[in-house]
UniProtKB/TrEMBL annotation:
<keyword id="KW-0863">Zinc-finger</keyword>
<keyword id="KW-0862">Zinc</keyword>
<dbReference type="GO" id="GO:0003677">
    <property type="term" value="F:DNA binding"/>
</dbReference>
<protein>
    <recommendedName>
        <fullName>BED-type domain-containing protein</fullName>
    </recommendedName>
</protein>
<dbReference type="GO" id="GO:0005634">
    <property type="term" value="C:nucleus"/>
</dbReference>
<feature type="region of interest" description="Disordered">
    <location>
        <begin position="105"/>
        <end position="128"/>
    </location>
</feature>
<feature type="region of interest" description="Disordered">
    <location>
        <begin position="23"/>
        <end position="48"/>
    </location>
</feature>
<dbReference type="GO" id="GO:0008270">
    <property type="term" value="F:zinc ion binding"/>
</dbReference>
<keyword id="KW-0805">Transcription regulation</keyword>
<dbReference type="InterPro" id="IPR003656">
    <property type="entry name" value="Znf_BED"/>
</dbReference>
<feature type="compositionally biased region" description="Low complexity">
    <location>
        <begin position="23"/>
        <end position="38"/>
    </location>
</feature>
<dbReference type="Pfam" id="PF02892">
    <property type="entry name" value="zf-BED"/>
</dbReference>
<keyword id="KW-0804">Transcription</keyword>
<dbReference type="InterPro" id="IPR052035">
    <property type="entry name" value="ZnF_BED_domain_contain"/>
</dbReference>
<feature type="compositionally biased region" description="Polar residues">
    <location>
        <begin position="105"/>
        <end position="116"/>
    </location>
</feature>
<keyword id="KW-0479">Metal-binding</keyword>
<feature type="domain" description="BED-type">
    <location>
        <begin position="48"/>
        <end position="95"/>
    </location>
</feature>
Length: 382
């Protein structure tokens, strides 16, 4: 029996009914269904970047490959990869540190980029603490002031910053720092000097410290006279301080000249009370002290009636006395002092050798009696 081509009517009624939606339905049905736009990079988070580096980059949205998230630099236009699970923001920060357009725009100085580095804290005495990891910000002005302080503390020439070694060092340590010229460094050093001078002057004027002064004078190989004045004082915390308040060229070694230079320096710094003035045993210093005593009496700035103002350098006196006693033991009589060789004076070498031969025996005795004599001369010779 052949199967019939048509199903029996009774069986067709058992087939479940199927509803077909067509265009005849109301249009409100389509509007009620939720619609979503296709995501270009579904694997990339759309949250706002929390890193500060996004202030200088723009994310590129029309990226077809989800694994190639990109961002464009707002200053030079360079496109960089920034996938959150691959590159992150490290490549953006690296580019920001070396982008010339960013660093020259001024934004890099106003909004300095931060980086983790080992930092040291510097104390008031110039010592540094152990390094600690912290967040350091690029500060061009602070680096310049530190370079100026290095030049001053280490007694380096201003042209040190123009040497290739320093340039290579800074290129590795901080490539963003523009190397200053020696003229700029000189100005920074003078600016720092004027600031420190003003602070010290204000301290002298505001306090009532009793200042002790020491002086030293010498003649250079160019036959120029120089004078150095140092102020010593104890602060409110009983800490001893020493500050050079004068270092300049003077016309001669006369007592009146020395006294006037000390007076000018003391008045310029606002020092009110001078307790002592320590000088060597030269006769001109006695004249200088007498002049200063008279000036202090007129200004009513005396301390203990200036009885302790004149202090003679005991080390200088002891050295002279010790050498004189050694010369007397060798029966070396007569005047004449030791002198040094001066390159600008043709006869100074002859005078130095002649006086050395005269006191040769005294030097031998001095070496036996003073253990520090030989090492001191060897140290000076080096």
């Amino acid at each position: 029996m052949e199967p019939s081509a048509t199903m029996p009517s009774s069986e067709s009624e058992s087939v479940p009914n199927v509803i077909h939606l067509d265009s005849t339905l109301p249009s409100t049905l389509d509007s009620s269904l939720p619609t979503t736009s296709p995501q270009v990079c579904p694997s990339i988070s759309r949250r706002r970047g929390r890193s500060e580096v996004w202030q200088h980059f723009t994310r590129i949205e029309d990226v077809k490959d989800p694994d190639e998230a990109k961002a464009r630099c707002d200053y030079c236009g360079k496109v960089l990869l920034c996938h959150p699970k691959r590159q992150g923001t490290s490549s953006l920060k690296y580019h920001n540190e070396r982008c010339k357009a960013f660093n020259t725009s001024g934004v890099g100085r106003d909004n300095p980029q931060s980086k983790m580095t080992r930092t040291r804290k510097m104390g008031v005495d110039g010592t540094t603490s152990n390094p600690s990891v912290g967040l350091a910000k690029y500060n061009e002005q602070k680096i310049r002031s530190t370079v100026a302080k290095m030049i001053i503390v280490d007694e380096l020439p201003f042209r040190f910053v123009e040497k290739q070694g320093f340039k290579d060092f800074m290129a590795v340590v901080e490539p963003r720092f523009p190397i200053p010229s020696r003229i700029t460094v000189m100005r920074d050093c003078m600016k720092m000097y004027m600031l420190e001078k003003e602070k010290l002057k204000n301290m002298f004027m505001a306090s009532d410290y009793k200042i002790c002064i020491t002086t030293d004078m010498w003649t250079s190989i160019q036959n120029l006279n120089y004078m150095c004045i140092t102020a010593h004082f104890i602060d409110d915390d009983w800490i001893l301080h020493k500050r050079i308040i004068y270092f300049n060229k003077v016309p001669d070694h006369k007592g009146i000249t020395i006294g006037k230079e000390i007076e000018s320096s003391v008045l310029g710094w606002g020092i009110k009370k001078i307790f002592t003035i320590t000088v060597d045993n030269a006769s001109s210093n006695t004249t200088a002290i007498d002049y200063l005593r008279k000036i202090a009496k007129l200004r009513d700035d005396m301390v203990l009636d200036n009885d302790l103002m004149h202090i003679r350098c005991c080390v200088h006196i002891l050295n002279l006395y010790k050498f004189k006693s050694c010369a007397e033991k060798q029966n070396i009589l007569g005047g004449g002092l030791l002198c040094l060789d001066v390159p600008t004076r043709w006869n100074s070498t002859y005078l130095m050798l002649s006086m050395t031969l005269k006191y040769y025996a005294a030097f031998e005795v001095l070496q036996d009696e003073d253990n520090e004599f030989g090492p001191y001369l060897r140290e000076v010779g080096q």
